[in-house]
Amino acid sequence: MSLPLAAMRRPTLLIVGCGDVGLRVLKLLAPRWRLLALTSSPARCDELRTAGAVPLVGNLDQPATLARLAGLADAVLHLAPPAGDGAIDRRSRDLLAALARSTRLRRLVYASTSGVYGDAGGAFIDETRAPRPATARGARRVDAEARMRHFGRFTGVAVSVLRIPGIYAPGRVGGDPRERLARGTPVLRAEDDVHTNHIHADDLARACVAALHRGRPQRIVHASDDTQLKMGDYFDLAADFAGVPRPPRFGRDEAAQRLTPVQMSFLSESRRLSNRRLKRELRLVLRYPTVAEGLAALKG
Question: CA spacing 20 to 30 A to 160: which of 80, 217, 224, 288?
């Protein structure tokens, strides 16, 4: 299904949560789209204008500030995470309540997480696998996904849900493996290690754009690359590219004494994601099909 907006001269996109990935999307779409970006920080308005977007000041934690969003955009890219407590994503609930008053909206893309699956024991899974979140963080994402898809069925808006694994890119705050390597954060020994999944931030931005144009209504898609590595092997590879020592490895019990509960939660879930829909339905050709290509920029 191609996006009906493509026939319009210059459709309008609203990005909610315009951080690193959102800024990459802006670069891809300007000037073919009119771009709006919701921000809760007035101090970011100049940055967003420079990136090509019209900033809109509003706060997902203050529903009254969202009322103006209705009717502004033909498409919405929702990149904002849920609030940090409870099992309900109040932010998505309140955003959808504001958008429900729009007769203009035709497309909504929601950035979720592969964490909705919980632990799959390293199994290779596709989007038909039922979510079984092991954390409140994952439960909030399941709630948000359900709200998005119900909204689409009720309003006729074509909703795409991207389930996203670990986002990385050299220079990306929170996604540059050199940050963790510099801290000396340990990883698990091979016999205890877990399979993880990755997507380069540039490819994720391109996946968001592909979903805006070609996503099937109420469809879930894994936005993941082809990498089949365990977590420790990923950081070993990053260390080799960067020319720094590999991280220390410990057994699970000793790692639990050195890492926070949140860090350990990521070491308790193992899965491998199929990206067939990403390639076949969204027709995305990955620029960084594995982390080896994406981490090559660390050399030198």
Answer: 288
For the chain, which residues score pLDDT lower than 50? 1-3, 7
Write the CB contacts of 183 (distance below 8 Å, at least 6 apart in sequence): none
CATH number at residue 160: 3.40.50.720
Q: How many domains does the chain have?
A: 1
Buried-state track 12-49, b at ≥16 Cβ within 10 A, e below 16: bbbbbbbbbbbbbbbeebeeebbbbbbbeeeebbeebe
State pLDDT tens for residues 172-184.
999 999 999 999 9
pLDDT in tens, 227-252: 999 999 999 999 999 999 999 999 99
Identify the helix (H) or strand (E) that includes residue 220: strand 219-222
Q: Which domain holds residue 39?
A: 10-167+200-227+272-288
What is the rounded CA–CA span in Å between residue 113 and residue 102?
Answer: 27
